[in-house]
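To close the chapter, one final illustration. This time we ask the reader to focus less on the individual chains and more on the assembly as a whole: which components sit near each other, and how the overall shape emerges from the parts.
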Amino acid sequence: MLRGLVNKIIPFSSVDGPGNRTAIFLQGCNFNCLYCHNPETINLCNNCGTCTKVCPTQCLTMENGIVHWDKEKCIECDNCLKACKNCSCPRTTYMTVEEVIKAIENTRPFISGITLSGGECMLQKEFVIELFEEVKKLGLTAFIDSNGSIPFYGDDRLMKAIDAVMLDVKSYDKEEHKMLTGQDNEIVFKNMEYLASINKLYEIRTVIVPDILNNEKNVDSISKRLSELNPSIKYKLIKYRPIGVRTEIIKSSMPSEDMMEKLKSIAIKNGCKDVIVV
Amino acid sequence: MDDILKIIKDTSLTYEQKVFTLAKAAENSIKPLNIDEETQKYRDNGIICDLFEGNAPYRPRYIVPDYEVFLKNGSKFLDLEPPKNIWEAINSLLILYKHVPSITSFPVYLGNIDTLLDRFVEDEEEAYQAIKLFLLHIDRTITDSFCHANIGPEDTKAGRLILKASRELNVSIPNITLKYSEKTPDDLALDSINTTLITAKPSFANHEMFAGELGDDYAIASCYNGLPIGGGNFTLVRLNMGRLAPMAKDTEDFINNLLPDAVKKMAGYMDERIKFLMEESGYFESSFLVKEGLISVDRFTSMFGMVGLADAVNHLLGAKDQKDRFGYSKEANDLGVRIIEKLEEEVKKHHNPYCKFSDGKFLLHAQVGIDTDKGIAPGCRIPIGEEPEIWDHIRHSALFHKFFPTGIGDIFRFDSTVKRNPQYVLDIMKGAMKVGMRYISFYTSDSDVVRITGYLVKRSDMEKLERGEQVLNGAAVLGLGAVKTQHVLDRKERKDA
Ligand code: SF4
Ligand code: SF4
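The assembled structure is written out below.
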């Protein structure tokens, strides 16, 4: 049976799309962003066993060469995440669609819908489709939070299952995007255009990172592009926060309010009508 | 006599507060009620408590006038013609409010003020000006947090202006409830949520639930009490389950012997209070509210209050670890429900001839506690400091809400960032109604107006009081007490989880 690799489920989230949403984080990402604030979601576990040695409650064990995690005993101290050299996490669970649906049963009356996030959830596209088809049957909305590296276009079944996408547009410049994420941004922009054209682009986001990115150029170019597509689409400017990040690979700091306001005004000047700073 | 002098010399009381306190002292200098020895014992050890109603009830605890009748007819006693425009309407209402008594001497119900005023809204700007002054006047003259206005369930222009003015004024009085129905448009609900995230009101009442039990013409008065419009509540006495439980040999003894006995004694005590009010005080024979049809004795009931279910359950089960306690373990929650079912059954056995609205029955009320309660949780609430995640919390509350037509409610404090996503709170509120919650309130951590246990007080007022300064709102002292004994400012802050 088809299973998704789930890193965690946040039952109530106020920041992952409209209304109250259950945010489901899938494990595994094809980007490796310098500023990633949950780097433990990047790679699949290679069962090296390092983390089992640091768990204070012995909830990590090796069985037949595979790491097992005893959820009940876990005290969420994050020692395992700090110890992992592989940007991975032993606290993941393979779940069937049915199991995910069961996991949200208790909170279903209180939410507008589900948001799949990651890692990059589109790496598990088949699972996304099947889960969302069930989610829709419950009268909930189905949102995706994506880095945009995998095409949304050309897949009718996928797009029927998804209500809207929140897309990261991390950098306008190809080289800068590569420097930041390790990957090209060509498909990101194609996705942006496609999703806007079918009215399924809920918002785009850009993280503002002083000293690392050409933030002004990014916001200027991205907002121009967005306002040409549809000026009413939300443009979210996110402050870089040095929390949970790998400080050994990134030397930056939180941008000032002034800087954020200045960037916001650039986006507004370019025609974007719904620009927010968080 | 020392007490009287103490009141007279107390510089932390305003003049008006002094007069009320002296009146209460005068009332309490006589003992006209017949209270048998066993009941008195229950009173002495705090198991039965009449919540400072006084020794000689000379007005019903809560009066819920039919303000529609007043707008239609004006008042002969007050010599007022029916109002013809918004200025006359607010002026007349403000006059009438000063003649609607209650246990605090201030009115606990101001009417469904949106539908009352909507007919007079012609020019919106002028109406806004009038409504804002109306609300300001209420805050500064009805200086008591138990004063409650209702809006909804329908959307009205006046309702929107009331919300707007409330956001702008950001004061603790009046308390406001939106009667929320499945038919209430999302837009009005969202406007209400945006308001409550700024100024801790309105709260949300489950309209279908209240109307199903009390009829469409019900009101939310005082903290969150469902009562019939055109009537009210004679008396509210409460049973402290947290204090009763330690006297039981075991759970069965509590449920089968102690609880029925305490209910019987308390019902008898309520009878005695109602009898005095009805047969001795002369209130209903002399009040113009009765004569002019604003209230009728047939539409009165009485509220049988309770507190401390959590404490009783935890005591009976000897539950120490969080996972075993009320709000967490199935055994504890089931016992809670069993106790309340038994309470309902015992209270239903009692008949009081004057409670005509409720066919001679007392109606259950989950009382929010008093400022001196220490280690006793309000009503059926999970104690502050032990709150589970909000979804489990709401489902837990809903187990109990159906038993309490005259009021029960829960309060949730949010991290102020939810202001960016009011739809988030709307989803939670709607879900709460769906799973059977009767009444729910929200506020944010950065709000100056905070919900204490049911009523609202300004943080800044409590700070003044602590410095020994006078404050206009008489309930601020209760708020400060509850902050100290019940840690109400430490209510769990709800963040994404
Ligand atoms: S977070 Fe859980 S699994 Fe990881 S080390 Fe701590 S207790 Fe063990
Ligand atoms: S989570 Fe990391 S440290 Fe633990 S076994 Fe997997 S790869 Fe190794």
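The radius of gyration of chain B is 22 Å. The interface with chain A takes residues 389-392, 394-395, 417-418, 420-421, 423-428, 430-432, 434-435, 494, 496-497 of chain B (CB under 8 Å). With these observations in hand, you are ready for the problems at the end of the chapter.
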